[in-house]
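Two folds, back to back.
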Amino acid sequence: MELVKGANAPITASEVLVAVVAAVPVDVAALLLTPAGKVRSDADFVCYNQPTAPGVTVQPPAAVRVVPGSVPGDIDKIVVTASLDGSGPADWGQAGPLRVTVTDTATGTVLATFAPTDLGRETALIACEIYRRQGAWKVRAVGQGYANGLAGIATDFGISVDDDEPQSAPVSTGQASAQQAQDRSRPLVPPVGTAPQPYSAPQPSGTPQPEQPFVAPPQQPFPGQQPYAAPPQPYPAQPPYADAAPQPYGAQPYPVSQSGQPPGHAYPQHPPAFGAPPAAPPFDGASPETAPRFGQPTVSLDKGRVSLRKNETVSLTKQGAPPLSRVRMGLGWDPAVSGRNIDLDASVIAYDNRAKKLVNVWFMRQEAFNGVIRHSGDNLTGRGEGDDEVISVDLTALGPEVYALVFTVNSFAGHTFDQVGRAHCRLVDDNSGAELVRFELSKGERMTGAFMCMLTRGAQGWNMTALGEYAKGSTVRKMVDPGKRFVLTSLG
C-alpha cells in the first residue's frame, strides 16, 4: 500500500522491518515514546550506538525491526528516524529522494511504502511511526524534516542532547578590561580553609561589544625533545586541605622523579580533581621556574612522529614549518573478548581558558562552530589505520575563546573499559595524511568513560597532552565537569 503523508495502514504481522532506501548513506534510529510523547530515559533511544530495546532493534545498513508483541505496555508509539551520516550531501534537498518500506519479515510481504517529499535544508526526518490504536498496531507516514539533525528530533522527544550553560551578555570595553584584570588575579582554586566556589560568569551590563581576544596562559620556552625517565615513584600523600572538594577517579599527588634521571619530567600520574588545590610538584635538581608543569610541552615534532606516554605533552609547532591548519583525531579500540562487539563513542569537549564548557561534539551533535569541528560518526568505511571514529578540527578557524579541546571515548550501551583490549588516539595532519602523534591505552578499568587526550592553545601554538584517565560517564555530557580539572591544571 502506497501511503501519502499523514496516511496510515494496519499492521497485522507479528514482526515488521522498516527500511529506508536512499542514494546516500543514511543513519536510522528509533525512539520509544509513552502516551505523553516522551521517552522514559535514554535507553528508549535506539541507534547504532545502542541498537536494541525491548521489541525494537536497529539493523544495518538502514532498517529497524519491530516486534509489536515485545514492546513494553507503557510504550504507545515507536518513531523511526532517518538522518544523513555526514559523509555525503549536506542536506536532504541535495541527497535526492528516499523511500520508506514496511515489510512483514515472516512472509516478505510489503505492507506499506512511503516517499517523503518537499525536503530541503533538513538533515534528518521522522520517516514514520508505528503506534497503538484500540489494541491494534498501525503505521503512519510522517516525513517531517529537521534542519538541526537527529539532535533536534531527540530533543523534541525528551532526550537531553547537551547541557549548555546560558551565555552571558557582552560587557563594555572598560568593564571587560576591569573584569579581565580581576579574573587574572582571582585564584583558580580556593585558598586553604575555604570551600570551593563554582565559577561565576561575568555579569551583563553596558553596551554590547565584541568578545575580548583570547590571551594564552604563560608558557616556558620549549626546551626541545628530551628522553623520559623510567616511571617515577609515587610521592607521599599530602595532608588534605580543609574543606577541599573530594578528588574523584583516583586522583593522586605528584610523584618525584628518580635520582640521577634528567630533571623536569615528574609529571602527575593523575591531575588534581576539579575544585581541589593543585599540589606543587617536587623537582630533582630543577627549579620550579624551569621545570615543566602538566600540559607544558617537553617533546616536539622536529624529529617526526611522536609516541606519547600518559601525561606527556608534545608541541604541535614544528621548527621551520608552517603551523598545522587542519588536523583529525582518530580514536579506535579493540574488544578484550574475541568476537564481542564493543561499540564506543568518540567525542570532544571545547573549553575556554577558565574551564567553562563551550560545546560538546558527539554522535548526537556532529559539528560545532559552523563546521570548524566535525564528527565523522561511526567509521563504517575503515578510514584511517584502525580508527573507529574520527573528529576533524580546523585549528586556524577556531575562535579565540577556545582554549582546550578534551577528547573522550564513552560507552552509551554501558560496556566498560575492562572489556576493551586496547584503545588509541592519533593526531593526523589532514592535509598530508601523515600521522603526527599516537597514544595507546592498553589497560582498561571498570568504567564507561575515558579521557584520551587534550589539545591546548599555548603561547607558541597548539600542544597535545596524553591523558589516559577513566570516569563514570556513558555519554560526553557526564565528562564535562570531571574534564575541567585537566584544563585548570594545564593553566598552572
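---
second:
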Amino acid sequence: MKYISTRGHAGRRPFCDILLEGLAPDGGLYLPEHYPQIDDAALTRLRQVWHEQGYAELAFQLLSLYIDDIPAADLRALCAKTYTAEVFGSRSIVPLRPLEAGLWLQALSNGPTLAFKDLAMQLLGHLFEYELARRGEQLNILGATSGDTGSAAEYALRGKTGVRVFMTSPDGRMSAFQQAQMFSLQDANIHNLAIDGVFDDCQDIVKAVSRDQTFKCRHRIGTINSINWARLLAQVVYYFAGYLQASASNAQQVSFTVPSGNFGNVCAGHVARMMGLPIARLVVATNENDVLDEFFRTGVYRVRSSADTRATSSPSMDISKASNFERFVFDLLGRDGARIETLFGQTLASQGRIDLSGDPRFAEAATRYGFASGRSTHADRLATIRDNHQRHRVTLDPHTADGVKVAREHLAQRALERQMQMEPERLAQDRPAAPMIVLETALPIKFAATIIEALGQAPERPAQFAGIENLPRRVQRLPADAQQVKAYIERHCAADAGAGAKPQQAPGASSAERDDCHAHMGSDG
C-alpha cells in the first residue's frame, strides 16, 4: 500500500514514512492510493473475529490492510498492547448501549483521558516509539488541540523514548478540567504552549511550521493531529466495531451521527464506508460554529476568522477550519489533485471560501457518500442533557449532546419522509430505519460547568482525577506567532542537546538525504 497527496504531489509513500511525516511536501494530506474493499465474506470473517477475539484483533485485521511495512507479528503485538481492558475499562473497548428505539450510544471515552481521542492516540504512541527505535531516530511532535487531542497525545507519549511533545492550545478556551489534564503534567518531554487566540490559530501555526522544510528537517518535526493519516486510520476500527455490535447480519445497514469540528472523526467513518462497511448515513453534528453544516446544506465551505469563531459550551468543536475536510473533497471531486491544490491551496487561502454549489458532484455528498448534517446550540445542549438524564439516567457531555440532538432530528425527518412517500398499506409493513449510532466524544466530568448548568449537580468524577485542577501547572503562554513557537522549540531542543540528549539520524543517511526533509519525517497540522 502506498499513499498519495490530496494536492497531486508525484511521490508515493509507504505507511511508516507518512506516520512520521504528517503533511505531504505540497501541503496536501495523505490518503491511500485505494481503499481496500470488504466484501460479504470478509465482513463475515471480521464479525467472527470481533465475537471470538475482540477489539485488538479486529484492529490488527483492519490496519494490516493499510500497513505492510511493519511485520505482521509486530503490528499484532502493538494492537494487543494498546487495546486492553486495563486501559479502556472493558473487554469490548467501545461498548454499545441503547438510548431509545432506533438510537444507540457508542462509548468511546473510557481511556486514560476520558475522550474518544485515546483510541487512536494510545496506538500512535506505541507506533511512534516502535518506528523511531527501528530507525534510531528522534521526533519532536508539534500539535494543536481544542481540548481533547492535547491530553490524549500527552498521556500517550509522556515518558516515551525519542519523543518530545510541543502542544499548542487556545489560551482560556478549554474547560478547566481539560487545562488541568494537560498543564499538570510534569514530564520533561511534554511542553504545553497556550496560544493567545482560537484553535484555528494554533492549527495555522502547526501548518506554518510544517511548510518550513528547513526547520522541519533540522528539528525532526512531526505531529499527532488527525491530519496524520495514522490517527485517522486507527479511528476507522471503532466504526466496524459499532456496526458489528448493532447489526445481526451483513445485510443490515447502520447510520452514525458524529459530533464534528475538524472533520477527522467523521472522515474515519467515510473511509469505513468507502471500504464497504454497510453505513446508510454519516450525519455531521456541529455546534454554533457550523462551517460543516453550512457546506452540506449549501455547497459553500466558508471559514471564519478568529474573531468570528464563537466560544461555546462544546468547546472542542469551536473550529472554523476543518482540516480533514480536504480528504473528503478529494474523493468527492474524483481525486483530482490539481483541482484540490487550486481550491485549498489557492482559492481558500485568498478568498476564505470554496463554492461547490454549482458542481454536479456536490449532490453526491448525500446521494453517493451518504452525508447529512445538523446544528446544535447551547440551549439545545442543555435540553438534551436534561432529557437524557431524566428519561434514561444517562449523563451526556455537551459534544455528545450535540450529536444526540442532531441524530433525533435526522431520524424524525427520515420517518416523516417515509410516511409521505409510502402508501398507508405499505407503511404498516415498512421495516424500521437503519439503527442510528451516536459516537460519544468524552465523559461529562471534562465539562462540569455545563453539566451543573443543565442538571444542577456535578457529574461523577473518576477517582484518579480527584483534585486535578489544584495541581501545579507547567505551561508557557505565547502569542499566535509561528516564529515564536519555532524559537521555543529551538531553545528546548538545544538545551536538551546541551544536556547530553543527542539527536540521532537515520542510519546511513547522507547529508544530502538529510537535507531532503520529507525523505525521513516531517509534520502535519
